Structure formats: C-alpha cells, structure tokens
Amino acid sequence: DLNGEYSNLWKATETTQNKYGDLFQIFTPRLHRARMHELPFFIPLSEISYDDFATFVNVPQGTPTYQALMQFWRDRGQNQFDLNDMETYVNNQQAINDNVRLALQGRIQAARALGLFGPSNLAKTIVEMHRTGGALVINLSQVGQWERNIMVEYILRKLSQLSQSGDIRAVS
Question: Most Cβ neighbours (<10 Å): which of 11, 34, 47, 150?
C-alpha cells in the first residue's frame, strides 16, 4: 500500500471496525507499538543474510567490514539475534581492528536509524491468513523508495520461502 489508502479498509468509523475488520492485518514500518489492527513492520536480522544486511547498510563485498559481518552471521547460525547482539559482538570482539569496529558501529547506528530491523511475526501472520483467509496490508506510505525496496524484497523472499517449505501454496 504505497499511499496508505488500504490501511483503513477495516474501519467503519475512525474508532470502530466494520464487518470485515477481523479479516485485516496492517503492518506499518516505524510503528513502535501495535494498535487496533496495525502491527509494527520489522525485518528480523536472523531472517536475512549478511550479504543482504551489507547491501542495506552499504558495506562493500570483500572488505574487512564485510568479512566481520559474515563472521558474525556465521557465529549466530540459525539463532535469533538483533542489532544489540551485533553491537555487543563488535564491541567485545578482540579480533576486529579499530577501523572495522568503527565502520561496523556506524552501520549499526544507520540500521537503527532506518527503524526496519527487529522482531517480527509477519511469517506467522501470513501462514495463519493463508489458512483462515483475510487481507494483509503493508502500509508503505511513510517510508522512502529505498526503504520500500528493502521491505518489498524481504516480503517477496519470505513468501517464496514459505511457499517452498509448504507452509503456504502459491496461487496461480
């Protein structure tokens, strides 16, 4: 939803839902807390690759900074982690040289400023709505083109993963 016009389809009035209200779930970037049918949209770091993250925060491949990101992701495996975990790793890792440490600290701050990374139940919501029916709206009206590209790419990858795993069926 590029302009926010679908984000209110669940409403009868400004404060009450219509008869279809329970079928809608709205995800909004930079929303700090859930409200009514609206949930914050975040991208969990553990659900993207180090290469994706490096691209999002402009870390060139092959650099020591990129290699440190790669090592951090590999050390985490399939475990959940966030920007705080990354910051702790960067600050406590003796093997990271000071220039790389400063570069990574800057990228972590940039990622925080984007406001796109954090815990999410998007995948669970997609699977549940696939089972029960409903409409999922991603409200992109308050973000710029660059952030939209990041979010759309993440969502398309998530849908593809869920389809490949059999959690949802592709619709033809």
Answer: 150
Q: How far is CA 24 from CA 37, 129, 139, in A?
A: 7, 9, 12
66: three-class secondary structure by DSSP: helix
What tokens were used for 105? 């600290």
Dist CA 96 CA 14 (whole Å): 52
Q: How far apart are the first and last CA of the chain?
A: 22
> Of 155, 118, 128, whose CA–CA distance to 140 is shortest?
155
DSSP readout, 50-95?
A: HHHHHHHTT--TTSHHHHHHHHHHHHHTTS---HHHHHHHHHH-TT
Query: What is the C-alpha to C-alpha distance for residues 92 and 125, in angstroms, rounded to an integer?
Result: 36
160/5 Cα distance (integer angstroms): 26
Q: Are 137 and 25 in contact (CB under 8 A)?
A: yes
pTM score, two decimals? 0.81
